[in-house]
Amino acid sequence: MKPIAENEWVTGQITLDINGVPIDMSVTVPSIPVKPQRMLPIFQQMTNSFVEMGVTSAAFEGRQVSCTKGCGACCSQPVPVAEIEAYQLAELVENLPEPRRSEIKGRFEESFAHFAEIGWFDRLSECAGGTKEEQEAVVLDYFRENISCPFLVEGACSIHKDRPLACREYLVSSPAENCSNPTAESIDMIKPPVKPSKTLLNVGQKRQITGVNFIPLVMSLRWAQSNEEKFDEKTGEQWLSEFFQKLTGKEIPGAET
Ligand code: SF4
Fold it and tell me: CA 155 → CA 71, 72, 169, 175, distances in Å?
């Protein structure tokens, strides 16, 4: 991607009302039209801020984050990624030096082949119109296969800075060992006040993704390879407006969606 010149950025103030509490944010975005992948670091930063708010508010209730580096138990889940993130992950892997690139691609292929063979992707599509319990059962089926994310290395995320929004939002206060056999009763999630990962699924979206409206991370490289990228180009302000319009469900000037 072509670098953005210093004079092609603009900074603005945003005030969000979260559960009646005004939150001020200063955001710097490209003033020129760009593809939405350019906005991803900004959406990642905002997600980090929302997660931090969730952690602070949990601490007020006496609940502390129990996740530690080297655990990685949650990295055997089917991480939902947005179209934008699928292309970002594919590009990130393409830019890895060898032999790392081939190793990661190999892990993606092996994991994908395994879940295809057991029919998990079909079950995922079928459960789209099902109940919450049916969908949770499909997620648990994936988890029970005990296949770690291709990016997990020695219990730690090897793309920590670039990890998907959904990974950022996953924190617990329950004992770490409970995550190896999660149930609704044994896991105490620390939730951010809003979930940008869900919003991102619909930002800039060009394709209707069958069934569940997300791409499982393990499928993302294949998906990006077989679906040509066709995103529009918009200014950073327009992308932000679209993002916040979808996050809040309110009309926001400048959002051309
Ligand atoms: S991207 Fe990183 S944090 Fe997310 S599931 Fe994979 S290893 Fe875990």
Answer: 5, 5, 18, 17
**Which atom of ligand 1 is the closest one to the Cα of 152?**
7
121: left (phi over 0), alpha (psi -120 to 50) or beta: alpha
Which residues line ligand 1 at a C-beta cut-off of 6 Å?
Answer: 75, 79, 149, 151-152, 157, 159, 163-164, 167
Strand partners, 215: 81
Threshold 0.90, pTM exceeds:
yes
Rounded to the nearest whole angstrom, what is the distance from the C-alpha of residue 165 to the centroid of ligand 1? 10
How many Cβ atoms are within 10 Å of 133's Cβ, its own excluded? 9
Tens digit of each residue's pLDDT (9 = 90 or more) over 63-79 = 999 988 888 888 999 99
* 217 CA → ligand 1 middle, Å: 9
Give the model confidence (pLDDT) of 141-186 as tens digits: 999 999 999 999 988 999 999 999 999 999 999 988 888 888 878 8
Cα 155 to Cα 43: distance, rounded to the nearest angstrom: 25
Going by CA atoms, what residue is nearest to atom 5 of ligand 1?
75
Pick from 163, 218, 220, 221 the residue to mutate for probing ligand 1's pocket: most ligand atoms within 8 Å of its CB.
163
Q: Which two tokens stand for residue 136?
A: 């949770």
